[in-house]
Amino acid sequence: MTETIAKALKKEIVIPEALKSVIMVMLFSYFTFAAAMIKIYIPGNPVPFTMQTFVLFMAVYYLSAKENGISQLIYVAAGMFGAPVFAAGLTGALILMGPTAGYLAGFIISGILMSYIMRKTGKLTYIKAALIFVIGGFIILALGTIHLYLIYKMPFDKAIVLGFLPFVASDFVKILAAAGFYKLKRQ
C-alpha cells in the first residue's frame, strides 16, 4: 500500500495547454482586481495610485496578446456587471464615465500591444523589457489623461497634471522592477 501511495504522489499531473491558458487568463484577471485594492489617493486627484500596472507588466511574460486582452476584458466586464473590482469604487456602466475609465481602456490596449511586442522581440533583455513596459505605461497614462480631458472637461494642462505626471515616477519604479523579471518570458 505504501508503494501505491508513493507512486501516486510522484505521478506528474499534466494540464492540457488550453486549460492552462484559461487558468492563467483568470488568474491575471484576479491579480488585476487584487492590485486595484492596493490604492493610495493624492488629495485633489480623482485617480489613485495602484499596483495594477505592475500586474499588467508581469502578465506580459505569461500571456499572449489575445490572452492578455481577454484577461483585462474579463476584469473590466466583472466591474461593469457589478463586481466591486475597480480602484475608484464604481461599478456597472458608471465606470465608463468614472475618472479611471481611460486607464481601464489603456489596460486592455496596452496589455495586447505589450504582449504582442514581447512575442515578436527576439532575445529578451532587461532593456527591451523596460522599453516594452514604457510603451505600455505611456498608453495607459495617455488614455487616462485624454479621458479626464474629454469626459471631465478638464483643461488639457490640468488633465496632464492630475492624470499623467503624478504617475510617472511610480510607473518608472514598477517598470524597473517588472523588467527585472525578463527571464520569465514564456517561450
Tell me what the structure shows:
- With 187 residues, the protein is an all-alpha fold.
- It has a single domain (20-184), classed as Arp2/3 complex 21 kDa subunit ARPC3 (Orthogonal Bundle).
- Helices cover 66% and strands 0% of the residues.
- The chain has helices at residues 2-10, 17-36, 52-62, 65-80, 101-120, 126-150, 156-163, 165-179.
- Helix 5 packs antiparallel against helix 6 (126-150).
- The protein is globular, with a radius of gyration of 19 Å.
- The N and C termini lie far apart (41 Å).
- The model has no long low-confidence stretch (mean pLDDT 91).
Keywords:
Arp2/3 complex 21 kDa subunit ARPC3, 187 residues, 8 helices
Q: How is the main sheet built?
A: none
SS element count, helices: 8
CATH architectural grouping: Orthogonal Bundle
Tell me the number of strands.
0
Low confidence ranges: none
Structural class by secondary-structure content: mainly alpha
Overall average pLDDT: 91
Question: What top-tier CATH class fits best?
Answer: Mainly Alpha
Enter the CATH topology name. Arp2/3 complex 21 kDa subunit ARPC3
CA-based shape: globular
The number of domains: 1
CA(first)-CA(last) distance: 41 Å
Classify the helix fraction into a percent range.
55-70%
Q: List the helices and strands in order.
A: HHHHHHHH
Strand content: under 5%
Radius of gyration (Å): 19 Å
